[in-house]
Amino acid sequence: MDGLAKFLDMGGYAAYVWPALGLTVAVLAGLLIASVKSARRREAELARLEAETGRGDEG
Amino acid sequence: MSARLHALANPARFLRFSRRALPWTAWIATICIVAGAVWGIVFAPPGATPPEGQGETVRIMYVHVPSAWMALFVYACVAAASAGALIWRHPLGHVLARAASPIGACFALLTLATGSLWGAKMWGAWWVWDARLTSVLILFFLYLGHIALTNAFDDPARGARAAAILALVGVVNLPIIKFSVDWWNTLHQPASIIKRTGPAIDAAMLMPLFLMILGFTFYYFTVWLLRARAELAALRTRALKLRLLAA
């Protein structure tokens, strides 16, 4: 437990290190999630439109 | 109209390729980032004790340096795709450039933010107008400009062309960023990895750093492929809707 506290403290620099790491995780995860959702939404819309017009083909 | 339809026929191969490639890039990215982060942040040695060295703030290096590398690499990809579109009329050029740009902007932002947090303690300054920081800020603005131009016109083709020209004009910024720490007196650390005499960083830190760089690169490939697929679907949707209107 003492080792964990020491690790989290980052030699006294916790206030700088953890926000930097946390911001990185947040931005990269957010971008990934947004991109996945956007791809799904666009592909679903295309599939629906192709079904309506009877023109589905590409992978 | 027929030229555009012809261009849309090509992307079928890209869609098949991306569908097969995506699980690979995603897994490689995950494994490399998790391994690199745990190794670098938990197990690797800290920097020399402050005030002479970086101490534990060196942990920030494991996200700051990969972000910076990606910010540059992605811009090179945007420029290459733009050149492909403008000069060789490659049908996927604009799609790939448009898909990559927001990713590069995120990496540039992370570079600036993590660098700022690192410098706040190490330099005692959140920001300085030195050559490297300023040129990376300009890189970030170039990304924003590229995204804005892409969406600025009713006709997407015009936006794509304008953005592509901006991307190519901004390429000069890349060597400026890379060599800024050599050409000018900068507060930012001089080149530590790609040097004539070899890396200046300890091997115990270099390995997890390379893992993180590799992981970030495959993360970029993953998100790039996803966004390109979304762009292609949107293009095809638009083409279908136009055809329905014309019919």
Can I get a quick summary?
The complex is a heterodimer of chains A (59) and B (247). With 59 residues, chain A is an all-alpha fold.
Order of helices and strands of chain A: HH
Please provide the count of β strands of chain B: 0
Number of domains of chain B: 1
Helix content of chain B: over 70%
Structural class of chain A: mainly alpha
Explain what this protein looks like in three dimensions.
The complex is a heterodimer of chains A (59) and B (247). Chain A has 59 residues and is mainly α. Chain A has a domain at 20-52. Chain A has helices spanning 2-9, 14-53. Chain A starts with a helix and ends in a 6-residue tail after the last helix. Chain B has eight helices and no strands. Chain B has helices spanning 2-9, 11-43, 61-88, 93-122, 131-150, 156-169, 173-183, 203-246. Chain B starts with a helix and ends with a helix. The interface between A and B is large, with 32 and 43 residues.
Ordered list of secondary-structure elements with their pairings:
The complex is a heterodimer of chains A (59) and B (247).
Chain A: H1 2-9, H2 14-53
Chain B: H1 2-9, H2 11-43, H3 61-88, H4 93-122, H5 131-150, H6 156-169, H7 173-183, H8 203-246
Helix pairs in contact in B: 2-8, 3-4, 3-6, 3-8, 4-5, 4-8, 5-6, 5-7
Key structural traits:
A: 59 residues; 2 helices; rod-shaped; B: 247 residues; mainly alpha
